[in-house]
Structure formats: C-alpha cells, structure tokens
Design goal:
- The protein is α/β, with parallel strands linked by helices and 434 residues long.
- It folds into two domains: 2-211, NAD(P)-binding Rossmann-like Domain (Rossmann fold, 3-Layer(aba) Sandwich), CATH 3.40.50; 232-430, 3-Layer(aba) Sandwich (Rossmann fold).
- It is built from 18 helices and 14 strands.
- Strand 1, helix 1 (10-21) and strand 2 (25-29) form a beta-alpha-beta unit.
- The chain binds uridine-5'-diphosphate-xylopyranose (UDX).
- Uridine-5'-diphosphate-xylopyranose (UDX) binds next to helix 9.
C-alpha cells in the first residue's frame, strides 16, 4: 500500500520503518527539513536500537523516503497516519494543536484528490478526538463527502528501547474504525501480523491506549507503595513481588519497585486522562494517587542520602543515570531531574553521568556531567544510581569505593546485589530491601 506518515518523532519513524519493511511504499513527512535530510541519508533522528538499520534497509529498497512536501505525498497515498506529538499543557490537559494542524493539512491535500482515502490517528489522544476533532476538520478543509473518507484510530504500544521488536511482534493490534473504508484498509495493512486484532469504534481505541498506560503506571505506583512499607517492616519486596507475580492474574511484569516511572508516555498520559475525566465531571482517584506516589519516590531517594550523610550541604554526590530508563537517550520526566534539583537546592555539589542521556539532560539542568562514570564518582561522598544501565549493574564495586571519599551508595533501581555492596564496605540503601 502507499502509506504517508505525518510526524517523524518516535512513533512516526518506527511506524514508517516497520511498514516499509513489510513491503509498503512509505513516505515519512515532517516540517523539519533537517530531520528529513537525516532520514534520507540513512540516519535515524532518534536513538532507538535497530531503527537506523531498518531505515537504511527501507531507503535501499526505495520503500521508505522522507519528505517535507506533506500535501503532495498525502494526496498520492492510500492511507495517512497522524503521528504528531500530543504534549500536556500546564494543567495536564492534552494539547491538540499539532493534531489540529495535521488534520487541516490533510484536508487541504485531499481537496484535489478523488476516490477514497483513509486517515488514521496513531498519536495518543483523549476519547472522542478522532471523531469530534480530526474527522470534522478534514471534511471541512477538503470539502469531501463523508462516504469517501476512511477514519481510524490505531494506537501504538511501543516501549522505547524495544520499539522495533514491539512493532514487529505486537501482543495485539487495536483497529478503531468509524467506517467500513478504515476497517477494510487497516485490516489489509496489518494482514501480515498474526496477533489478535481487536476491532472497535475510535473512542474505544483511544481509551484502550490511555487505560493500558494508566494501568501499568498504577501498577508501578502500587508496588512502590508496598515496597515503601516493606522497607519499614524489614521485608525484601523482591520476594513479595515474586510471590505476587506467580499469580497469573497479576503477572510478574511491571513489579519493579524503585524511583518511579518517567518517560514521554506514563506521566503525560495519566495526567491527560485525569484532566479529561475532570472536564467530564468524573472523579479519578486512582490516577491522582498514581501520580502522587510517583512524586514521592524520588524524594525518598534524597531522604535516604540525607539520613546517611547527615547534611547534604557541601557534600559531593554523584548521580549515575539520567535517562528515564536504560537503553534510551530520552530524559523526559526522568526521576533523576527531581533528585538532582532537590540535591542542588539543599546545597550538594552534584556530578552526573549517563551513557546516552547527557546531551539531552544538559538542556534541562546545567549540572556538571562527566564523560565517564569513573570521573563522575571521583571523591564522591555518596553515589546514587538512578537508571539500571548494564554499565552500572556491572560496576567494579571495589574500585568505586576506592575512588570515593565516602561509602554511601543509594540504589534507586535495585540494580546492584545488596549483599555484595555491603560486603565491599558500602553503606548501601535501596527501595524495598527491608
Ligand atoms: C511505555 C509503555 O510500556 C508502552 O506500552 C507505551 O506505548 C509507552 O509507554 P516506555 O515509556 O518506553 O513505554 O517505557 P517502560 O518500559 O514501560 O517504562 C516506563 C517507566 O516505568 C520507566 O521509567 C521505568 O523505569 C518504569 N518502570 C517500569 C518501573 O519503575 N517499574 C517497572 O516494573 C517497570
């Protein structure tokens, strides 16, 4: 099929590259020329394992190209995916301005087209957006009759760091459709994938995405709350998680306690769903609690350091890990940001290291960053691990201790072996160890 994808962010690039790999003719579209130039030269504008290889393969087979000529390529395709960003405003409400402008552009592009065309929203949007915002906007700008336009909503469930594998081996594909054209087109496009395909109306697809992310975020906040109790009662939460995870209704996934969840999805999506519920006069106590627990976790990490160091002022504290999780350079809503801000406010001298996230983090806080973890931890009174990169999991603890001034080691992700850390001579503390 001829596919156009508007937005070359995370979702757009992975969608475009994987659909091209299935043999479709894909054009990735963006207004930012430098991103398109990168794409066309076979470089990935974002860090994601396997993506650059897939882009290069697509360019070589000519199944994938990038362009800034949005209207022309929308017109020449059978199906257009909207993959633009949906950020939060200051009250947590979803900001639909990119969605609105993408649908206006599609509407203008379709003015000179005859026949059928399908438009599918892949961006995460609150229920009713596809039906009440995207569809009317396209119809108004294009002057098209409703019966020629296919309108769909097809959320993604990609995890950063394993997005290609998630896209190529999905647990399920949600096909939200408002008409038979969209239903037929999406089923045809996803025919090669043999997983369960759930067909529903667009607003259901929109809520499936928010409910899935909010449920996973709530699961993390729930285990963090129980892990905080375990700490006080001398119980190892990892054993509790193991016991819980053996129940197939609970599952063993997403039971890792620690500094809380970050990233571009969970915090934003929980806030957007809570705000959308509030606007419709529905109370969302679970969503509120999910965010509140998540705000507490980084503060617990700082408190652990404070209890061990006496006072924070003047102490040299090294933060290992700035990305919101390992194997990504994404630092959005990273828990490290909260920990570092609080430590600086309390007068600590903070140094930091991350294998991939330092350039992005520099744009948020101008903290002293070191090219290696060895340099970051030199003469530190305390080291705090905030992201469970393999590099940190395999730290040579003996030489770390020798490099440091003090022996306080706080593990915000339970990345290390507690017994080994204590045996080496560290004053080691982590969430949920008891
Ligand atoms: C998430 C969803 O998993 C994905 O389906 C959706 O499309 C986008 O949002 P992502 O943000 O890439 O993906 O990362 P994920 O691996 O889900 O982790 C999110 C955050 O939760 C990270 O900060 C991670 O450290 C934290 N987390 C995850 C925990 O604290 N404990 C866990 O057990 C799992």
């Amino acid at each position: 099929m001829k596919v156009s994808v508007i937005g070359t962010g995370y979702v757009g690039l992975v969608t475009g590259a994987t659909l091209a790999d299935l043999g479709n003719q894909v054009v990735c579209l963006d207004i930012l020329e430098e991103k398109i130039d990168m794409l066309n030269s076979g470089k990935s504008p974002i860090f994601e394992p396997g993506l650059e290889e897939l882009i290069q393969k697509g360019i070589k087979t000519k199944n994938l190209i990038g362009s800034i000529e949005i209207e022309q390529h929308v017109r020449n395709s059978d199906i257009t995916f909207i993959c633009v960003g949906t950020p939060s405003d200051k009250d947590g409400n979803i900001d639909l301005s990119y969605i609105k402008s993408a649908s206006s552009t599609i509407g203008r592009a379709l003015r000179d087209k005859s026949g059928e065309h399908t438009v599918v929203v892949k961006s995460t949007v609150v229920p009713l957006t596809t039906e009440d915002v995207v569809m009317p906007n396209i119809l108004k700008k294009s002057g098209w009759k409703r019966e020629n336009l296919g309108i769909g909503m097809n959320p993604e469930f990609l995890r950063e760091g394993s997005a290609i594998n998630d896209a190529q081996n999905p647990d399920r594909i949600v096909i939200g459709y408002a008409d038979e054209i969209a239903k037929k087109t999406l089923n045809h496009l996803y025919e090669p994938y043999k997983c369960t395909k759930l067909e529903c109306i667009p607003r259901t697809a929109e809520l499936i995405k928010y409910a899935s992310n909010s449920f996973l975020a709530a699961k993390i906040s729930f285990v963090n709350e129980i892990a905080n109790m375990s700490n006080i009662w001398g119980i190892d939460f990892q054993e509790v998680a193991e016991g819980m995870g053996l129940d197939s209704r609970i599952s063993a996934e997403f039971l890792r306690a620690g500094a809380g969840f970050g990233g571009s999805c969970f915090p934003k999506d929980v806030k957007a769903l809570a705000a959308a519920a509030k606007n419709s006069n529905v109370e969302s106590l679970m969503l509120k609690a999910t965010l509140e627990v998540n705000d507490i976790q980084p503060k617990i990490i700082v408190k652990m350091a404070e209890e061990r160091l006496g006072i924070i002022k003047g102490k040299k504290i090294a933060i290992l890990g700035l990305a919101f999780k390992p194997d990504t350079d994404d630092v959005r809503e990273s828990r490290s940001e909260i920990v570092i801000k609080e430590l600086i406010e309390k007068g600590a001298e903070v140094t930091a290291h991350d294998p991939e996230g330092m350039p992005n983090f520099k744009e948020i806080i101008d903290v002293s960053m070191m090219p290696t973890h060895e340099l970051a931890t030199e003469k530190a009174d305390c080291v705090i691990i905030m992201t469970e990169w393999n590099l940190y999991k395999n730290l040579d603890l003996r030489s770390l201790l020798q490099r440091m001034n003090g022996n306080v080691l706080i593990d915000g992700r339970r990345a290390l072996n507690a017994k080994e850390a204590e045996k080496t001579g560290f004053d080691y503390k982590t969430i949920g160890l008891g």
